[in-house]
Amino acid sequence: MEHIENNKELQFVKDGPWSELYALTEHWKSDLEFYKDDLRFLHHLIEKYFMWITKPENLDMVKELKVGLFDLKNKCRDLLDKVQRHRTQLGQMVEDFNKADAGIIRTEHEHLEEEVANFVTTFRSNRKEVFAITEFIIDSESLANLMDN
Fold first, then answer.
1. Within a domain: residue 142?
2. Handedness of CA 83, 104, 97, 7 (dihedral sign)
3. What does the angle CA 27 – CA 43 – CA 84 come to, to the nearest 5 degrees?
4. Is residue 75 part of a domain?
5. Cα(88)–Cα(94) distance, integer angstroms
6. Residue 11 lies inside a defined structural domain of this protein
7. DSSP symbols for 48-85
8. 140 or 148: which leads in pLDDT
9. Which among 76, 55, 59 has a CA at the least distance from the CA of 119?
10. Residue 1 neighbours by CB under 8 Å, 6+ apart
11. What number of other Cβ atoms are within 10 A of residue 29's Cβ?
């Protein structure tokens, strides 16, 4: 009986959704590339208004935003690298199953999934903050009048 259960477990791991996990990592990669481009846009947005800021408290807010965007850019780059390495491993599992690696790769996948989800949450929060602070600075510095002229 134990042999049958072990055989079922081996079959599940071997036939597991490796190709589905591979496809999921392709979506992660695509999303992260989008976020990378969006981070570039947000950085450009901040730079566009940074030179017009005169109030020290506004300068401090923008400096903090820039640090946050820099950290997110680095995290995004690191995640893209991790996702690519993981995709390569999954591709190898699809082509040539190795039971010894299966558990490790599944655990890595779970951790990577959590990292991507945390990145997205942080990114969205940061993005909202960039727009809110940009709007506040435009209003408080009277930049809207400068830009209309």
1. yes
2. negative
3. 25
4. yes
5. 10
6. no
7. HHHTT---HHHHHHHHHHHHHHHHHHHHHHHHHHHHHH
8. 140
9. 76
10. none
11. 17
The residue whose two tokens read 């903050």 is: 129
Whole-model pTM: value is 0.79
Residue 12 has pLDDT above 50, yes or no: no
Q: Cα 136 to chain center, whole Å?
A: 27
- Give 21-69 pLDDT, tens digit per residue: 889 999 999 999 999 999 999 998 888 877 778 888 888 888 888 999 9
> In this structure, is residue 4 part of a structural domain?
no
Tell me how many domains the chain contains. Answer: 1
* Whole-angstrom distance, CA of residue 49 vs CA of residue 36: 21
Other Cβ atoms closer than 10 A to 93:
21
User: Could you tell me the residue range of the domain that residue 39 belongs to?
Assistant: 18-148
**Contact by Cβ (8 Å): 72, 39:** yes
